[in-house]
Amino acid sequence: MPELKQLHAGHAPAVLAFELANRTYFAASISDRGDDFFDQFTDRYNASLAEQEAGICAFYVLVAEDGSVHGRFNLYDLEDGTARLGYRVAERVAGRGVATAAVRELCRLAVVRHGLRTLRAATSHNNAASQRVLTKAGFVPVGPAVPADLGGKPGTWYQHDLVLQP
What we know:
With 166 residues, the chain is α+β, with helices and mostly antiparallel strands. It is built from 6 helices and 7 strands; from the N terminus they run E-H-H-H-H-E-E-E-H-E-H-E-E. Strands 1-2-3-4-5-7-6 form a 7-stranded mixed β-sheet, with helices on both faces.
């Protein structure tokens, strides 16, 4: 069973492999990261770890038993009890409830590890799978997301007011 783990330096090779293996799949529903992302991967990865260390963001990977990455689940701009959620899952595990389970777990971690009360996430109108994941995980639509929020695509902002479940 894959496990949600906080990102660390040792995950870098598996994260890069995940991004490369799923690049075309991701580009069908979200903006492509571009060649620069891959050309500068090490620098960007290290910058992410520094942001995490500074408490600005919290990055998680869904790691399979063999060490491969099945998904990335990120909390951005942690401030005043609020953060933005972003995530992506590998094509080979999509449609199996993996994203929904990981987003639910990240919501729990957002409260207990990061002291968050509210998460927001934007998804494009044509990304029905992400809309389903957010809804199943307790997010509700709260308004339009402009193309600048979603790499050039119009969409919807979702919000989840977090409550620690007993």
